[in-house]
Amino acid sequence: MGSKNLKAVAVRGTLKVPVVERAPVNNVAKWLGANYKTLAAWATNPGRGTQDSLAWWANVGALPTNNFGTPVFADAAALSGERNYEMFHK
What we know:
This protein is an all-alpha fold. The chain has helices at 22-39, 54-59, 81-88.
């Protein structure tokens, strides 16, 4: 999207999305609400924000490097939340 000079996308709707089987969706939503902090990649150390997930994204090859042209970033460890914390907060 950056290469097309698109700055933002806004979507608003008022219609309800029909769900055929609501009970399984509710069960997943309840489970996710109860477990996301312990299972999510960004929850490694609450308080430092999303920079803590950088190492995880680098390991799975899902970084948006070069406008998503390259899924890896060789120096990702240098930008990790752990390294930033060590450098700037101790």
